[in-house]
Amino acid sequence: MASVSSDEWRAICDKFTNAQNLTVVESCNDPDNDPFRSKYKARELLREIYCSLKSFEAGDGEEEEESGGESGVQRPVEPPVDGQTEEAFSQGFCGDSPAGLRAAKLGAVEYYLGVNHVDTEELSAGQEHLMNCMKLLERCRVSSENVSLFIHVRNQLGILWAGRDETETAQGFLETAESIYQRYMKEDGSPPFDMTDYFSTEENLLTHQERTKRFELAYTHSMYYLAQVYKNLGETERAATYCHSTLQRQLKLNQFSPMEWALNAATLSQYYITKGRYMEGRHCLSAATVISGLAGDVPSEAAAQESETESERREQLRQKRAEIARCWIKYCLNLLQDSKKLLEDSIGELDTDRQEEMKRARRLEEEEEEKERKSALLFGSEDTFDSIASLEEKVGCLLPLDFNEARAIFLVGQNYVTQAKEYFQMDGYVTDHIEILQDHSSLFRSLAFYEEDLERRCKMHKRRVDMMEPVCNELNSKYYLMIRRQMMFELAETFNEMMDLKLTLANRQDDSESLDSHTIKKFNNLCSASAKYFQMFLDSLCSPEGKQPEHLEEEVLRPALVARFRVARLYSRLICTAPSGQVENLDKSLEHYKYVVQYCDTHPEAVATVETELELSREMVGLLPLKINRLKAKMTANN
Fold it and tell me: Where is this region: Disordered (predicted)?
């Protein structure tokens, strides 16, 4: 490049500084009717810098490149396979030639022009400039002077193609950025130049510490975008790994927004939970809770009324902390449910032999827990790690094996239910509020599994009814039909479970005739309540004229046939001393059993969804008429 006077170079540096200030600072204050005003001004300054650099290069006798964008002749450039990068690697990480540095500086301007066009929603022009940067970098070896530019431009192209749903193309750019970082750190590792150093006077150059931080942040961005790419490609395990590492690096670099970071960590916990990795899930949630606290206290309602800014901040903090609370609820619920699946026998009761076996295995598991923790990816610095560890100690991550352990998990979940409902109230958040209620109900149901006292277990199910029934009856089916169906079915099943518990208690007596009238009435009320809600569910499937559907849609096929089967079973179990009442109940029971059989005979595709229920229904269709005839004969003889 031809000799450049200090005044000329300082003028270029000043223009670059002004362009950066316009892009980062001034653009935040642009009016709504001219949102890109500052960025357009920055673009003009970048064009001037580019022209100056090209004139210096031309003055040096070098052949002028035909660069794209407004700074040169545009021509379409396809995404490269990036084989040039591997060639650059093979040459080693060493200082670049003067020509390479000149190309890198021009490439940096192309990069900033590309970002500018993307920011102003001119994606095609942005792509042109970014690809021109890539073309200029073909003349460079990867070195400490330009490695940051190598990574940044690939990050931007990855974002650009991901935004077009060209996920695999984005993947190629981002994975190359990752490999450049890893090879550079392995073979060189010195604090690399930042791209702003290209256009800084000597006294304004960044320190080694600042360069290192910016370089690490660029790589953190590569990992963040790769996490999104792998998620979109269905590679969930890789996506989770990259997401976890990104969060860890953001904390280490102190480059994060507390609430955004906390929500991302809480969301990641849900992946670990579905994989049964409760230690990692608990750690993510504990970190999310602690880091969210860095956002400060929720402004008071009075302060929110006085200031629009405080009102928005209050709303955001309350909502996001409530969302984290909901993630905690899922953690506790899944932990209880996974344990229940392992401990229950063929009829859904606690398998005590399996319980003892798991307790023996638990002792070995506890011995290995500390080793596992050390190998896990942990969050936090010295300032936050103790707080995170302290919160983790308050909730277990091992599957509960008895009532006391299950109750400890339940109480944590119930505490977060209270927190979540404070924000997601019925007035304004109907769907969210009901989902939280359903989770609360499921927490009670899971805890009841461990309770040996059947009366206390029945009271837990009664709590479920008390929280669900009023809401279900108040919901407008016109707007919340699916939710109301879910609640009706759950209420029916809950009453059914209570009825089974009462039946088990009754069976401990000599026979039903020894039950007092109060107990019989209670038993029958539970049967009737269950049948009522199952019938309400079935009625919700009818046409406005009340006609039963000839064909059940796939999403309601099994629930509808199971509801029919359960109603049939309930009518047959009602305790009635009068033979005429027994015949009436058995006739209703037979009617519902017949429906299950006839529907499956007419729609063979339904058989696989209710094999057990269908087999029992066929059996009862054969047996019940005999029983009904005997009762009728007995009635005739008595008359």
Answer: 58-89
Provide the pLDDT for residue 368. 62
Structure tokens at 288: 């999310």
User: CB pairs under 8 A, 24+ apart, for 49-56?
Assistant: 49/12, 49/15, 49/16, 49/19, 49/109, 49/199, 50/106, 50/109, 50/110, 50/113, 52/8, 52/12, 53/1, 53/12, 53/102, 53/105, 53/106, 53/109, 54/106, 56/1, 56/2, 56/4
Strand partners, 350: 344
Predicted local distance difference test score (pLDDT) of residue 279: 92
Tokens of 12: 């270029």
- Residue 526's Cβ-count burial label (10 Å; 0-12, 13-18, 19+) is buried
Closest listed residue to residue 93, CA positions, set 142, 145, 147, 148: 142
Structure tokens belonging to residue 534: 């199952």
> What whole-number distance in Å separates Cα of residue 330 and Cα of residue 278?
11
Percent of the chain with pLDDT over 70: 89
Tell me how far apart the alpha carbons of residues 223 and 240 are, in angstroms, rounded to a whole number. Answer: 11
SS3 string, 303-345, reads HHHHCHHHHHHHHHHHHHHHHHHHHHHHHHHHHHHHHHHHHEC
The pair of three-digit structure tokens given for residue 375, joined into one six-digit string: 């190998």
Q: What is the pLDDT of residue 98?
A: 72
pLDDT at 69: 39
Q: Tell me, what amino acid is at 32?
A: D
3-state secondary structure of 350: strand
Q: Which of 524, 515, 496 is nearest to 581 (CA)?
A: 524
124-169 residue pLDDT tens: 999 999 999 999 998 888 999 999 999 999 999 999 999 999 999 9
Q: What is the pLDDT of residue 170?
A: 97
**Rounded Cα–Cα distance for residues 484 and 434 (Å):** 10
Q: What is the pLDDT of residue 637?
A: 82
CA distance linking residue 23 with residue 223, whole number of Å: 25
Reading phi first (left if > 0) and then psi (alpha if -120 to 50, else beta), residue 165 is in: left
Q: Which residue has the tokens 């909730």?
A: 395
Amino acid at 362: R
* pLDDT, position 68: 41
Residue type, 145: E
How many Å apart are CA 452 and CA 458, to the nearest integer?
A: 11
pLDDT of residue 382: 66
Do the Cβ atoms of 180 and 85 come closer than 8 Å? yes
**Tokens matching residue 603:** 């729609």
Q: Which of 218, 295, 217, 222 is nearest to 254 (CA)?
A: 217
pLDDT of amino acid 520: 87
- Which regions in the chain score pLDDT beneath 50? 1-2, 62-95, 512
pLDDT of residue 122: 97
Q: 475 near 483, Cβ under 8 Å?
A: yes
Copy the structure tokens of residue 623: 């047996």
Q: Measured between alpha carbons, how far is 333 from 494 in angstroms, rounded to an integer?
A: 17
User: What per-residue confidence (pLDDT) applies to 119?
Assistant: 96
pLDDT for position 627? 93
